[in-house]
Predict the structure of (S)-ureidoglycine-glyoxylate aminotransferase.
Amino acid sequence: MLDPLLFGEIDPPQRLLMGPGPVNAHPRVLRAMSADLLGQFDPEMTGYMNQVMALYRPVFGTQNRWTMLIDGTARAAIEASLVSLIQPGETALVINFGRFGLLLQEILLRIGARFETVDAPWGEVVPAEAIRAAAKRVQPRLICTVHGDTSTTMAQPLDDIGVIAREVGALVYVDATATLGGMEIAADRWGADVITGGLQKCLGGPSGSAPITVSDAAAQAIFARRHDEKGIRAANAVDGVGPRIPSNYFDLAMIMDYWSEKRLNHHTEATTMLYGARECARVALGEGLDARFRRHQAAGAAMSAGLRAMGLTLFGDDAHRMANVTGVYIPQGVDGEAVRAMMREQFEIEIGTAFGPLIGKIWRLGAMGYNAMKHKVLITLAALEACLAAQGVALPLGAAVPAALAAWDEVMAA
Ligand SMILES: Cc1ncc(COP(=O)(O)O)c(C=O)c1O
């Protein structure tokens, strides 16, 4: 008999994760993660680290030497970036249009940095001219923004961000957790100094490893704060002139030294996550980034068209929707949580709830990474239609799936 204290073997239900992330991981990624472990400085392992650097450069749209992984969920890379880029008392400008703009502010607050915000209401993005005016007024050391904010499903245009930052001598930080691998990320063209991501959205992996890219200008500023910890510093190590970065784990100067030929023994790289991150990038580049962006665009267009065909109203500004997450108003009189429960219990499909002012008002439906597939969008729409009908909503039965199919095909044919 099984000892009850051992519980059972992990055997989760086969849920289709169609929320704002995490999503189901690509099987190739899961297979890569079952490979045997290596020692941290084994030449095979450091070889894999170098491959990861090479693989993520095109994913970020950059030539940046410093392109690597932070061990931790996406938030770990956000925190590593901010704690390494800005000093207590320096001023940042936060482009704020949702929950994750609030997260940037929360981390800056803990660092002891000053910050000002340039805001848009939830469901909109911040116009470039408003960012320029705020940057001129605030004269920040750092401009921080989210690319796609899953809380509002909006994608902030970033074409002008680098130009604006150079006008005031600022560096730029971008949280692209939710869009990396699904919408174009153009670190070099945008002139963004540091961009971070996560695996559990468009890259189709599990959460727990966060890709990051750092420009030479940002690396120079970070290395100026280099203070290697006593137990691992080389005899000839020279400290930077700037103040010590007030986090050991998230000290990008030491992390970059670990990812360089110095191989500073900072942390033990999360081998299994690195295998997964490496495979995520191989899957993305193997598909081709343009094809992948188009697939996400088709999935988003199909989801939107299907929801509209049901008679539902989408949340937010049509012109700035993320390709991969769609917000939709919960119809009047419908218990949103009862529908989510029925989706999960009867159809094994997860859709997302919402945050802050949108709690109880919208659902968020995602189609990204391995789940940005035609059949998964169609199955989700058909299931939602059945759940709404069960709640007594009068809706044009059978309209959503053909509308979604047509929208998918239109994007793919364009
Ligand atoms: C835009 C954005 N930033 C950051 C995060 C935080 O990611 P994690 O939960 O992996 O730390 C998320 C997760 O939903 C996100 O959507």
